[in-house]
Amino acid sequence: MRTAEKSLEGSAPVDASSTDKPVLRDATAADMAVVQSIYAAHVSHGTGTFEEVPPNVEEMTDRWRSILDRELPYLVAGFDGQVQGFAYVAPFRPRSAYRHTIEDSIYVKPETVGRGLGRFLLGHLIERCTERGYRQMVAVIGDSENTASIRLHGSLGFKRAGVLTSSGFKFGRWLDVVFMQRALGDGERTLPPR
After folding, report:
1. Per residue in 72-96, pLDDT tens?
2. Mean pLDDT of the chain
3. How far apart are CA 70 and CA 185, in angstroms?
4. pLDDT (tens digit per residue) in 21-60
5. From the CB of residue 166, how many other CB atoms can be counted at a distance below 10 Å?
6. pTM, whole model, 2 decimals?
7. Where do runs of H (alpha helix) occur along 46-177?
8. Which residues pair with 90 in a beta bridge?
């Protein structure tokens, strides 16, 4: 899945007739304004996240630094040199026995949905986390009607692991949480090195 990593900047509108091959790189502090804008749209208009108030750029920068401090991947990608999506992993839970399991998060600009950017980002997260020796990746998907995210994860080998029914309340309705999971590398077939 390695691709040439080029410069991505800003957030200009997507031209559907432009290059169809996305570009990927590690996120930097300079990307956090665009990342915040993308996430704010999902918080304000979507049910994939259960946050109800968009965090500001400073908070998004703090979250990005927290991921980097754990030496976990935080990626941005887009078309035509513009950041149009981001993805990262975080520890699944803080207890030490979960240390081989990570949770993914992926968000793309609404006008970019359907161009394969989410799949591109998730594929690279899977690759990088496998290289780092993680054994399980979990997706915690807000809203059982979030079929795009459920299909995306399923297309890359995730299986449904369970549903928490009516466990969130946003936009005047109860929302489920769908858990999906996939093995990385040897998964549970061998013992981890640590």
Report:
1. 999 999 998 899 999 999 999 999 9
2. 91
3. 20
4. 899 999 999 999 999 999 999 999 999 999 999 999 999 9
5. 12
6. 0.89
7. 57-69, 117-131, 147-155
8. 103
How many CA atoms are closer than 13 Å to the CA of 182, on its beta-carbon side? 20
What is the residue type of 154? G
Q: Which domains does the chain carry? A: 23-183 (3.40.630.30)
Q: Give every CB contact of residue 104 below 8 A, 6+ residues apart in sequence.
A: 87, 88, 89, 122, 125, 137, 138, 139
With tokens 């990307």, the residue in question is: 31
How would you list the strands of the sheet with 23-26, edge to edge?
Answer: 23-26, 74-78, 85-91, 101-108, 136-142, 173-183, 159-170
Retrieve residue 39's tokens. Answer: 């996430």
Which runs of E-coded beta strand occur in the chain? 23-26, 74-78, 85-91, 101-108, 136-142, 159-170, 173-183
